[in-house]
Design brief:
The chain has 14 helices and 16 strands. With about 425 residues, it is an alpha+beta fold. Helix 1 packs antiparallel against helix 5, helix 2 crosses helix 4 and helix 5 packs parallel to helix 9. It is elongated, with a radius of gyration of 28 Å. The site of adenosine monophosphate (AMP) has 18 residues, from strand 6, strand 10, strand 11 and helix 10. Adenosine monophosphate binds next to strand 6, strand 10, strand 11 and helix 10.
Length: about 425
């Protein structure tokens, strides 16, 4: 049993020394996505359950097995969001801006799925995602992929592998489904129980079954790219041509369907070798999503990437951002008067942008010096009665063990010199 003080399985605390990496990944997303006209949208972490059932599709693993769904005190069925797109569409439809004009938004935040925790698979994980809705063109899919690859390149993951495919449109579905169903029916006896059910409920799901035996059978199934009608085939051809035009690296995986039912036309996935079995960094594609209370589906293109997996990949390459550790200065006060004066000094040094700590408990000098070392301060600034009277401080460079007297007025400039910030 988990110890009482540990976070629940599949969730994690993120401590300050790890936070710098998260901030870097998030900040870079803001910076790059804004270059393409995307603005940040923050939606609630929970929605009415129907938003996901209708949006993601009732036969998906996410909706069938993984959602954290509960009844609130008013008897409403609510769900912690397992992904970002359905809630974003709900918000855009609600604001009356999902149809007609193009709208570009991105989101960053926690998602919740009741999966078996493993390396790279969590119950609370975090996604960075984008959605471009309102208009349809193969070029939008291409631009979205180009932006994604730019992001991955900027964070040092340019060597990831991009796979693309098309699932065709709703019009393609019946005959693709028929062909797939006929093929899989011949192999039904060798497939897992879930797939034996999926053949009647949603045959597409068989294509991304994780079971080994099913995987081998899937490899022999008819490629979806051969089953598309002329219009869908042209759309996908155009996507590939434009990807080539921009010299983007990709392979066509004709059996890639992705786990969510809302995809139409283009689907894509980016994976990274070396982070274990859960190696999909990013999933995305073009979609048509139903929102409760609206008859018209929302059309768009988007992707979502798991921050935890981006971090694992960067760790594997040894390129993680580490926290700028320690303080610039630690103020040591000898006596009550010095403590009061140092409260003011700390305030004015922080006004200058310096990272400052001080002892607030009037402990002995030795204990304060020990803390200065422990918190990794560059300098200790020591003041007692004598220093106060002379309006100076004793500034001890802790690494070099040198000590200088510095006039209080000159302290910010001198500190910046010592810290190499001048
Ligand atoms: P999906 O929403 O299933 O298309 O997943 C998109 C991306 O989110 C994946 O490629 C992963 O990077 C990440 N992801 C999905 N599920 C999990 C999970 N349980 N734990 C960690 N990351 C996840």
């Amino acid at each position: 049993m988990a110890k009482k003080t540990e976070p629940i399985p599949g969730t994690s605390d993120i401590f300050p020394d790890e936070a710098a990496e998260w901030q870097f990944l998030e900040h870079t997303a803001h910076e790059i996505f804004q270059r393409y006209g995307y603005g940040e949208l923050r939606t609630p972490s929970m929605e009415r359950t129907a938003v996901f059932e209708k949006g993601i599709g009732g036969e998906t693993d996410v909706v069938q097995k993984e959602m954290y769904t509960f009844e609130d005190r008013g008897g409403r069925s609510l769900t912690l969001r397992p992904e970002g797109t359905a809630g974003v569409m709900r918000a855009l439809v609600n604001a009356g801006i999902a149809q007609g004009d193009e709208k570009r938004v991105f989101y960053i935040g926690p998602m919740f799925r009741g999966e078996r925790p493993a390396a790279g698979r969590k119950r609370q994980f975090h996604q960075i995602g984008v959605e471009c809705v309102g208009t349809i063109a193969p070029e939008i899919d291409v631009e979205t992929i180009e932006m994604l690859l730019r992001y991955l390149d900027t964070i040092g993951l340019g060597d990831s592998k991009l796979k693309v495919n098309s699932r065709g449109t709703i019009a393609d579905r019946p005959h693709i489904q028929e062909t797939l169903t006929a093929y899989f029916r011949d192999h039904l006896a060798d497939m897992c129980e879930d797939c034996q059910r999926r053949i009647d409920t949603n045959v597409w799901r068989i294509l991304d079954c994780k079971n080994e035996a099913c995987g081998a059978i899937v490899l022999g199934s008819p490629p979806i790219t051969d089953l598309l009608d002329a219009e869908s085939g042209d759309f996908f051809k155009r996507v590939c041509e434009r990807l080539d035009l921009l010299e983007l690296d990709y392979t066509v995986d004709p059996r890639l369907v992705r786990g969510l039912d809302y995809y139409e036309h283009t689907v894509f996935e980016v994976s990274f070798d070396g982070i274990g079995a859960q190696n999909a960094l990013v999933g995305g594609g073009r979609y048509s999503i139903q929102v409760p209370g609206s008859n018209k589906p929302v059309l768009g293109t988007g992707f979502a990437m798991g921050i935890e997996r981006l971090i694992l990949a960067r760790q594997e390459l040894g390129i993680s951002t580490s926290q700028q550790e320690g303080l610039d200065a630690y103020l040591v006060s000898i006596g009550e008067e010095a403590l009061a004066a140092n409260l003011q000094l700390a305030r004015s040094l922080r006004d200058c942008g310096l990272r400052v700590g001080m002892d607030l408990q009037a402990r002995g000098t030795k204990a304060q010096m020990r803390t200065a070392n422990k918190v990794n301060a560059t300098v200790a600034i020591i003041r007692g009665e004598d220093e106060l009277a002379r309006n100076i401080v004793n500034c001890k460079n802790l690494a070099a063990s040198e000590q200088h007297e510095i006039a209080v007025d000159e302290l910010p400039d001198k500190l910046n010199e010592i810290l190499g910030k001048a």
